[in-house]
Structure formats: structure tokens, C-alpha cells
Specification:
This is Methyltransferase domain-containing protein. Keywords: Methyltransferase, Transferase. InterPro entries: Methyltransf_11 (IPR013216), SAM-dependent_MTases_sf (IPR029063). One of its GO terms (biological process) is methylation. With about 260 residues, the protein is α/β, with parallel strands linked by helices. It contains nine helices and eight strands. Strands 1, 2, 3, 4, 5, 6, 7 and 8 form an eight-stranded mixed β-sheet that branches. α4 links the parallel β2 and β3. It is globular, with a radius of gyration of 18 Å. It starts with 18 loop residues before the first helix and ends with a strand.
């Protein structure tokens, strides 16, 4: 992102900016825990072609462009931040629309979508807010519609509650967002409690800031641009190194998960 003033929370300094917007300010465009490859597989599993698609919290609009490349019948983004909504509108042009609304109260009609997509957004919500957002996604889906999510997971399912709390607190301190990732079993339960049937579950390493994943997601030039920007900003460099250290500390207990769940016919 060449113009950081166009990003949400542009008035905040690097020391206090939520981690995902800090990375975007520094030039990172793929902000998903499982990387671009996991997003591509998720969209393929969801069946985008010919579908009416709703994306919750599209952010920079990168996934929106990939959705549109898969030839949906229609695309609607739902973004609570007006600045982020403008970024999505810039990304999609006249091929879709982006409305400003809460993911838990979209204002969209009942049973109007074939696919709802949400990436790296439920993790940042409280348990109650997660349930409200999933219920809203289920409401907007037609019978047989698919809800596709890509989130941070804790592994294994039997992970001790004390360790879960430690990881969540470490992530919150590092990324400055109250992250509450769930185990895969807990993600499943969240979806089935809303009346959905889990069809596909894929796990991937959470390697957001590892060099190989970075180059795969951003390309060589994008990676070099990011490194240059980090080196120019001492506070940003401290934050990025802190995030990377947190991810490394808990690398055996955190992963990316992609799930597709279906609304019964």
C-alpha cells in the first residue's frame, strides 16, 4: 500500500496500531493466517462460480479480487470501517458493491446469498460476537449455501486451557487486538451451533511472517519493499519482530484453519 494515509487508523503511530493494519501500512497485502494458497483453496471449496457471494470484512479487497476472478453472479462486501470499505470499492470497481455495516447486523436480506466468506475476522471477536456473526451469516445464506471461513486455530483440540489463555494473551500483547483463536473442534461447534453442517476442514501452518511464506504471498519485490519500510521505522521494526517472536514461540500450538460449512436444504 503506497499511501498509508488511505488505511484505517492512519492517525495512529506504529507502536499502537493493530497488527494487521501495521503490516498493511508497511506494504503487506496478504493478511491471512494460512497465506494466499489457503484462500485460493477455500474459495475453490466454497464454489464461487455463478454464486451470489457476500464477503465479511474484506479489508484491503485482495480476496474480493480473487472472488471476482472466479466469476460469481454477484459480489457484496460488508465492511464496518468506511476507509476500508473505500479500499474494497477501489479493488472491485463496478464489478460489485461494498456496504458499510456490522458483520453481525449486515442489513442484507434473508437467504439472499449462496456463499458467505470471512477471513481472519472471527478470531478477533469475543465468543459472544463470534456467535452473532456466524448466526448472521447463516441467516443470509440460502438453503444449501456455504459459509467459508479462514481463521487462526489452536492445536491440538486437547490443548490445556491454561496454555490457550497464555497464547491468547501473548497474541493480544503482540498484535494489540484481543485475539481469541479456537481449537478446530471449537470452530466446528461454533458453526454447528448455528445450524450449519461442516463439510471441509483444512489446516495450514501459521507462517505469516516466515520468509518463505512471505515471498510466496508477496513476491520478491513486495518482500523487499516491506523490508525497506520496516528498516525505516524503528517502532514498526520492534513491533514486527515482536509479532514474529510470538508466532515462533507458539508455532507448535497455532495454525491456520479453513472451513466450509453448509446451510441445510
Amino acid at each position: 500500500m503506497s499511501d498509508s494515509s488511505a488505511l484505517p487508523m492512519s492517525e495512529r503511530d506504529s507502536a499502537h496500531l493493530p497488527g494487521h493494519w501495521l503490516l498493511a501500512r508497511l506494504g503487506k497485502r496478504v493478511l491471512r493466517p494460512g497465506g494466499a494458497g489457503t484462500t485460493t483453496r477455500l474459495l475453490a471449496d466454497a464454489g464461487i462460480a455463478g454464486s451470489d457471494v457476500v464477503e465479511l470484512a474484506p479489508g484491503l479487497g485482495r480476496t474480493a479480487r480473487e472472488i471476482l476472478a472466479s466469476a460469481p453472479r454477484s459480489y457484496t462486501g460488508v465492511e464496518h470501517d468506511e476507509t476500508a470499505a473505500e479500499l474494497t470499492r477501489d479493488a472491485i470497481g463496478d464489478r460489485g458493491r461494498c456496504v458499510v455495516a456490522d458483520a453481525a447486523a449486515t442489513g442484507l436480506p434473508d437467504a439472499g446469498a449462496d456463499v458467505v466468506v470471512g477471513e481472519a475476522m472471527l478470531t478477533m471477536q469475543t465468543d459472544a460476537a463470534k456467535a452473532r456473526i456466524v448466526a448472521e451469516a447463516a441467516r443470509t445464506l440460502r438453503p444449501g449455501g456455504r459459509y467459508a471461513i479462514h481463521e487462526l486455530a489452536l492445536v491440538p483440540d486437547e490443548l490445556d486451557d491454561t496454555v490457550k489463555t497464555e497464547i491468547r494473551q501473548g497474541l493480544a500483547r503482540s498484535i494489540k487486538v484481543n485475539a481469541r483463536p479456537l481449537t478446530v473442534a471449537e470452530w466446528r461447534t461454533l458453526l454447528t451451533d448455528a445450524g450449519l453442517s461442516v463439510d471441509v476442514v483444512r489446516l495450514a501452518p501459521m507462517a505469516l511472517l516466515r520468509p518463505a511464506r512471505f515471498v510466496a504471498d508477496e513476491g520478491v519485490l513486495g518482500t523487499l519493499r516491506f523490508v525497506r519500510n520496516v528498516l525505516r521505522d524503528g517502532d514498526a521494526r520492534k513491533r514486527v519482530l515482536g509479532m514474529r517472536a510470538t508466532f515462533t514461540t507458539y508455532r507448535k500450538s497455532i495454525a491456520a484453519v479453513a472451513i466450509v460449512a453448509t446451510k441445510p436444504r
